[in-house]
TrEMBL record:
Name listed for the protein in its UniProt record: Fucosyltransferase
Keywords for the protein's UniProt record, in alphabetical order: Cell wall biogenesis/degradation, Glycoprotein, Glycosyltransferase, Golgi apparatus, Membrane, Transferase, Transmembrane, Transmembrane helix
GO terms, biological process: cell wall biogenesis; cell wall organization; xyloglucan biosynthetic process
Family according to the record: Belongs to the glycosyltransferase 37 family.
Organism expressing this protein natively: Salix udensis
Enzyme Commission number, as recorded: 2.4.1.-
Coiled coil: none
One protein family per Pfam: XG_FTase
Chain's role: May be involved in cell wall biosynthesis.
Listed PANTHER family: FUCOSYLTRANSFERASE, FUCOSYLTRANSFERASE 2-RELATED
Amino acid sequence: MAICQMEGSGLGSARFTKMAVSFLIAFFLLYMLSLVYRSSTFDLIGGFSRAIGTGEMAGNDTGASVSEDKRSSQPERVAVDKLLGGLLAAGFDEESCIFISAADLTLNPYNRTLEELSSGHVNGTTDCSYVVWTPANGLGNRIISMASSFLYALLTNRVLLVDLGSDMAGVFCEPFPNTSWLLPVDFPLSNQFYGLRSGNDHSYGHLLWKNNMNISAVSQPPPFLYLYLSYNYDDYDKLFYKDQNQGFLQNVPWLILKSDQYFAPYLFLIPSFQEELGQIIS
Ligand SMILES: *[C@@H]1O[C@H](CO)[C@@H](O)[C@H](O)[C@H]1NC(C)=O
Ligand SMILES: *[C@@H]1O[C@H](CO)[C@@H](O)[C@H](O)[C@H]1NC(C)=O
Ligand SMILES: *[C@@H]1O[C@H](CO)[C@@H](O)[C@H](O)[C@H]1NC(C)=O
Ligand SMILES: *[C@@H]1O[C@H](CO)[C@@H](O)[C@H](O)[C@H]1NC(C)=O
Ligand SMILES: *[C@@H]1O[C@H](CO)[C@@H](O)[C@H](O)[C@H]1NC(C)=O
C-alpha cells in the first residue's frame, strides 16, 4: 500500500517535478538503447554467426573477445552504471521512481491485485493498477512501444511491468538497482500473451464492439483487459484513443498491452491527458 501511494501521488504533478519526469522519459529511451547496444551487439553477432553457420571460428573468437571486454571494463562499468554514465545527478533519489522493488513485488499490492484476477471481479479495494507490456515484433518495435507504455503508465498512475519472455532475457537490464520491472514468471495470464491479437474476447476493442461502442453500458469493470495497439489493429481497438473511453479503464486493475508502435503521439490527442502531458513534456 505504502509503495503504491508513493508511486501514485509521487508521479502526479505535486511531488515529481516536471523536469524529473520529462528527464525520466528521455533517459529511459536512451538508457534502454545503451543497454541494448552494450549487452547485445557482441552476443547477437556471435549468436548470428553461429545460427547461420559461419563456422566455429567466428563463434570462438566472439566469445573470447566478449569475456575479455567484460573483464577489463568491469570496475569502470560499476562506477559508471551507478549514475548511469553521468545521466543522473549525484543526488538522484531512486526511491521516488516508478519501479517497484523486487521485494515489494511479493508483498501485498501485487498479490491483492492478482486476487481480483483469479476471483474474476473487481473489488475496488486495490491500491495499485498495472500496465503489463508484452513484446511484439522486432527489437526496435519493442523499444518504442515500451517507451510509449511507460508514458501511458505515468499518465494513468499505473505500475509498468514488462514481460520480456525468453528471447529477450539479458537484452534489457533492470533500470534501477534493487528494483524489478519484470512481470513475475507465474503471472496467471502469461501463457495467453503469445496468441493475443485483434478481436480477442478480452480486448477493449471487443468489449466496445459488444456494447455498440457505448462503454457506459458496461456496469461492472473486468479485472483485466487487453489493449491491442499493433499496426494491424481494427477500428474497435482504435477506440482506445477516444477520450470518453479512457475513464472506464481507470477501474480496470490489469491492462495487458501489446503494441509494436510508437503510440506516444496519440496520447497527446486525448484531451484528459493534455494537462499532465503539458507538465511532463514542456
Ligand atoms: C571452439 O571452441 C570449442 C569448445 O571450446 C573447441 O572444441 C573448438 O576446438 C574451438 N574451435 C576453434 C576453431 O578454435
Ligand atoms: C505474493 O505472490 C508471490 C508470487 O506468486 C509469492 O511468492 C508471495 O509469497 C506472495 N506473497 C504474499 C504475501 O502472499
Ligand atoms: C474484497 O477485498 C476484501 C479485502 O481484500 C476481501 O476481504 C473481500 O472478500 C473482497 N470481496 C470480494 C467480493 O471479492
Ligand atoms: C540492494 O539490496 C542489498 C540487499 O538487500 C543492499 O545491501 C544494497 O545496499 C541495496 N542497494 C541499493 C543501491 O539500494
Ligand atoms: C449508453 O448506455 C447508457 C447506459 O445503458 C445509456 O443511458 C445511454 O443512453 C447510452 N448512450 C447511447 C448513445 O446509446
